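Private note to self, pasted from the team thread so I don't lose it. Backbone tokens:
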């Protein structure tokens, strides 16, 4: 299936290039980020086992009441970043490698990463 939208096609190529270099292990899993127009999602993945260890998103029921203007803004990204760290600490994950998913490291992606660092995740 050919991707017709040029921006999505470019992001997909960047994502593939990043995934060639970034690989999550059981000692240092991969923190991957996806952002859409309305929401932001984060997962911690062990690529050796092919398992998602934990995930958080602005659509989650436990985070919805904390969001003021919906899930597509920087404040929501900060809340999701803090939530993913809480879930990672429950799984004894302290270090990750960051996968920005082909998105520019700025705005919501940077806010999520900074919030995760401030909450104690190392990458």
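Design output:
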């Amino acid at each position: 299936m050919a991707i017709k939208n040029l921006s999505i096609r470019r992001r997909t190529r960047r994502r593939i290039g990043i995934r060639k270099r970034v690989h999550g292990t059981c000692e240092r899993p991969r923190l991957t980020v996806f952002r859409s127009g309305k929401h932001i999602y984060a997962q911690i993945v062990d690529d050796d086992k092919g398992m998602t260890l934990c995930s958080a998103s602005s659509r989650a029921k436990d985070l919805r009441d904390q969001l003021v203007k919906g899930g597509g803004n920087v404040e929501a990204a900060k809340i999701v970043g803090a939530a993913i760290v809480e879930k990672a600490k429950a799984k004894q994950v302290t270090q990750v490698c960051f996968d920005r998913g082909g998105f520019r490291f700025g705005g919501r992606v940077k806010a999520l990463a900074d919030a995760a660092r401030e909450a104690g995740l190392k990458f």
